Amino acid sequence: MNRRAALADAVEAYRLPRLVRLTGNTYAAVFSLMKLLPADHILRAATLRGDVRPDTTIVETTSGTFGLGLAMRTALTGNPLVLVSDPVIDDRLRERLELLGARVDIVRDPSPVGGYQAARLDRVAQVRAEIADTFCPNQYSNPDNPLAYALAAEAVAEAVGQVDCLVGPVGSGGSMCGTANNLRTAFPEMRAIGVDTHLSVLFGQPDGHRRLRGLGNSLMPANLDHRTFDEVHWVGAAEAYQATRELFRRHALFTGPTSGAAYLVGRWFAERNPDATTVIMCPDDGYRYQDTVYHAGWLAENHLLDRGEREPTPVADPTRGTSGWAFLPWQRRSLDEVLRNEPAPVSAELRGGRRTWR
Amino acid sequence: MAVSTQRRSPTPPSEAHPEPLWPIRSLGRGSAIGHHGELLQGAFDDGSGQPHPALVTLPLPTLVTTAEFRPFPHPSTEPPTVTVSPQWKTKARAAAELLLREHVPQSAGGELVIHDAGTPPGVGLGTSTCDVTAALRATADCYRLDLPVERLATLAVRAEGASDSVMLENRAVLFGQRSGRVLEDFDRALPEMILVGCDTDPTHTGVDTLSLRPPDYTAEEIGRFRVLLGVLRHALDTGSVPLLARVAEASALINQRRLPTRGLDVLREVAARTGGLGVQVSHSGTVASIIFDPATPGVAEHVERCARLLDERGFGPARVLRVTTEEVAR
């Protein structure tokens, strides 16, 4: 066994996943705060390139955990940080960000065209115009976001060895595309299953109000490479919350609802393919959701109890929207190829006669 | 104290023939084992922010080079000179002279003889580093110097410009071929493997490893090497030949754009058709092999079919090599 040494700092302590065996050869890759990995890597790489200097102000639009990751790193490096958000930001998260020294800039009014997203981007441009030396990490299009996940892929490979199937939620595209493409360096035939939610544009659905947060998107991020995915699932809040609670009850893993969504799909795949080594990405821990996902009264009030579905329904055309738990065999196609219903290109790797899964 | 009494001459040295500083042997011997290229070669994050070129060698304990060193009368006030046989083993001579200059005060030099394993230099079997390592060991043996392996690695790199980790025997390490530094000691021996080896370019005159600048890998490739290191650690911990073969083939594919192996596609196809687990190459040479697991039922037939197919495809003569974990007697 390796000897344990003290960790360099909190970023090192929290950025990598722990690999936890659930049953047989099914593992959870458990992060405390997954977004810390790209936040740290993006700033580290920009610092090495000279784009971030000791006094450079970091400016980003975020209402979620990517901002927390940035704030943890800038608390250690001393760079000023401005996070532009809108009124939906959770008060406790805002308090943590401010304690870490971030300036949280709330956009009060949505833009007439493009809503809050557009108003936030306008505000970022305004802040950057006012400050001489700024850097915008841009998690949705910065290629250092998926590249950061080479570290996660290394941790998975070191602990588990061969991976046959990787399942995880998709939001910016960074974690799933980055982890899957890196693992495919050694395991090119590995199946990648992306988990999205209804009324998210990522895999072809119309945009709309989404109850399940932390995955899905209203905008198409440049970092999402659709050709990564063999299969895409859409999961609603009821299924995801139910599965989150089951993951806690059965395996004592206290996670957020995006982990639950991935667990729902990962468990289904693993039950059908008991010989496959399956890894389920669990992006954050459960503390932020104690008043919602882990609160039976809140679930009952919101009619989210006991609606968990056990089987996904296949869909042919995602543009019509989905409900419950739905899936589409994506077959490593581009979004256009899927929407035009074109057949999957047969790759040399998959022709190799290596074992395929149900 | 023991060292100083050993080194002090019992009688005052005479003018013409001063006593040596410490007793030396009339003949020093050393040896080194070769390798069959690498399991992994790339650039790795060593924490400095700058990628560090490094490799994991696939040692071949059956490929042994020996060296003998006979000292000229000792001591001398001139810088040491070494003669070498065969004469073209100039890197081995340079290594012996370097060791004498730095570790043996007043050495006159000596006569170095190398008996190599008969493998040609430049094909990627570590011939040159083997000569250098055996020469360093023979010279050190002559003067009863017990040099740590890290010191041998540094001297080898300085004599050659770039080196591999043959001085570390069959210990699996991530070795900086230009820095001489061990970046990671996996603390595990390699599992037993069968290689069906060939020279992918027999007409080639050999690669001068020194003339190859380490490639400028992209950030994406450096990330991929990191993942392969993760797979390699798991493979060594569990003794998994299939996983090692995956690492080797992935490393060959990434480097195909930088240090291309002729016919890599054909080798991969032959491996897929004969139950081979993966293709392994010498990244700065021309040898390559298809890896088999000795534990696979019917492996002998697979290996035979593979060797035959390689011959048919113009990669003959294929050789069947065994990577064993046994210590090699020298």
UniProtKB/TrEMBL annotation, chain A:
One Pfam family, short name: PALP
Keyword rRNA processing part of the UniProt annotation: no
GO biological process annotation, one example: alpha-amino acid metabolic process
Source taxon at top rank: Bacteria
Obligatory cofactor(s): pyridoxal 5'-phosphate
Keywords, sorted A to Z: Pyridoxal phosphate
Domain named Tryptophan synthase beta chain-like PALP: residues: 35-266
Protein name: Cysteine synthase A
Automatic annotation (TrEMBL), chain B:
Annotated SUPFAM superfamilies: Ribosomal protein S5 domain 2-like (SSF54211)
Identification of the protein by name: Threonine kinase
Renumbered residue ranges of the record's region Disordered: 1-28
InterPro entries per record: GHMP_kinase_N_dom, Ribosomal_Su5_D2-typ_SF, Ribsml_uS5_D2-typ_fold_subgr
Keyword hit for Transferase: yes
Pfam families for the chain: GHMP_kinases_N
Single GO MF annotation: kinase activity
Record's keyword terms, sorted: Kinase, Transferase
Keyword Kinase: yes
Organism: Goodfellowiella coeruleoviolacea
Domain GHMP kinase N-terminal intervals: 94-162
